[in-house]
User: Fold this.
Amino acid sequence: MIIIHRCAKCKHPDIFHRGTTCCYTQCLCPDPDYAGPEVIPTWTPEWQLIEEITPPGSRTREFGVLCDCAGCANLYQRECAIT
Assistant:
């Protein structure tokens, strides 16, 4: 799973608005308006759900570098029960 920010205008994740993804087409939304962070599911190439949440700021092959803002870090800590 990964943490993303969804655009309030087009509803695409922030990873669709960057040219750093290998698997997704870049969104042409000219002025994204991002909401707070949310956790979304991800799968392996064999379609197995990835249960763990990828830490904010991690570099991934599929999604590039994930956001590492304070909101993403706080959500990660809450979801993973890190104190």
Remarks:
- The two ends are 20 Å apart (CA to CA).
